Amino acid sequence: MKCLRTPDSRFASLPGYDFKPNYVEVDDTDGGLLRIHYLDEGPPDAKPVLMLHGEPSWSYLYRKMIPIFVEAGHRAIAPDLPGFGRSDKPASRRDYTYERHVAWMRSFLEALDLTKITLVCQDWGGLIGLRLAAENEARFARIAAANTFLPTGDADPGPAFKAWREYSQNAPDLKVGNIVAGGCATRPSDEVIAAYDAPFPDDSYKEGAREFPVLVPVDPDDPAAPANRAAWEVLAKWTKPVLTVFGDSDPITRGAERVLQQAIPGASGQPHATIEGAGHFIQEDKGEELAAAIADWMRG
C-alpha cells in the first residue's frame, strides 16, 4: 500500500497545539506497515481517555479538551485516523474502507495495550469507536458520544448528510479548514482554520477526506451494514455507562442522541446534556465545556 506522509514542518507552531508527537506502526492489512500518530498526555499509568476525531478533522480538534482531562488525573490519548493529521495517508481512495479503519484502530489499541478505556467519540470517531467498543468490550469502561451515531443503512441519513456527501464528491477543491469552519456555530480564527488544513499540502493527501463520506452506510446492502448491525446487538445489551453530549446546532446528527439513549441500557439514568452554541464540531465550538461535562461524569 502506497502512503503519503505530511512533512513535519506543516505542523510547526500551530495555535494551541503544543503537544509531543507519538507514533506506532500497525499492520496495513496489505502486507506492509502503517504509521499512526497520536497524542499521549498525562500519567502513563492512569486510566485512558481515548478521543477519536471524525471527518475531515484530526487530533487538533481535541486540543482544548486534553488539558482538562489531564488535570482531572487521566491519561489523554488522541490518535489521528489514517488519512488525517500526522498519520500516514494511503494514496489511493480504494485503500480506504470502513472495515480497514476499524482494523487499524483495533491494532492501535492492541499496540498500546489500552484497557479501562473511556471512549470519547464524535462524527466518524463514533462510527469507528462504537464498533471498536462493541467488538472489544473488555477494553472499554464507558462511552461518551458527542454528535455521532452508528448507521446501518436501514434509516434515511437525512438531507444535511446527503448534501454534505454530494458536496464532498463534487467540489473541485476540498478546502478542509473551511469545511470544519462551516460545521461550527462560531467561525474559528483564520489561524485555526489554517491548522485544519495543515495535514493536506495538496489534493493528493486528501483521498481519505474524499472517501469517508461515501463509506457511511446509507442503504441496507452497504458492505459495512452487517458488522454495524452486529455491533448494535452488543450495544443493546451494554450496561456500562454511556453519556451523550450533543451540540444544539448540528443538523447532521440531530436526534441521534435520543436513539442512543433509548437503545443502550448503559445510557439509562446518565446526566445527558445538550451544549448550547455548539455545531457539528462541538470540540471546536465548546471543547472546554464538553471536556468538563465528561470529566464531571467520570468523577460521578
- At CATH level 2, the architecture is 3-Layer(aba) Sandwich
Query: What percentage of residues falls in helices of 4 or more residues?
Result: 25-40%
Span from first to last CA? 45 Å
CATH class placement: Alpha Beta
The Rg value, from CA coordinates, equals 18 Å
Counting DSSP H or I runs of 4 or more residues, the number of helices is: 10
Order of helices and strands: EEEEHEEHEHEHHHHHEHEH
Characterize the structure shown:
The protein has 300 residues and is α/β, with parallel strands linked by helices. It has a single domain, classed as 3-Layer(aba) Sandwich (Rossmann fold), CATH 3.40.50. The chain is built from ten helices and ten strands. The strands form two sheets. An eight-stranded mixed sheet has the order 2-3-5-4-7-8-9-10, with helices on both faces. Helix 3 crosses helix 8 (225-235). The longest helix has 18 residues, at 282-299. The mean pLDDT is 97.
Task: List key phrases describing it.
300 residues; Rossmann fold
Please outline the helices and strands.
Elements: E1 3-4, E2 22-27, E3 33-41, E4 48-52, H1 66-71, E5 75-79, E6 89-90, H2 98-112, E7 117-121, H3 124-135, E8 140-145, H4 159-170, H5 176-182, H6 190-197, H7 207-215, H8 225-235, E9 242-247, H9 256-263, E10 273-275, H10 282-299
Parallel strand pairs: 4-5, 4-7, 7-8, 8-9, 9-10
Antiparallel strand pairs: 1-6, 2-3, 3-5
Task: Summarize the model shown.
With 300 residues, this protein is of the alpha/beta class. It has helices at residues 66-71, 98-112, 124-135, 159-170, 176-182, 190-197, 207-215, 225-235, 256-263, 282-299; strands spanning 3-4, 22-27, 33-41, 48-52, 75-79, 89-90, 117-121, 140-145, 242-247, 273-275.
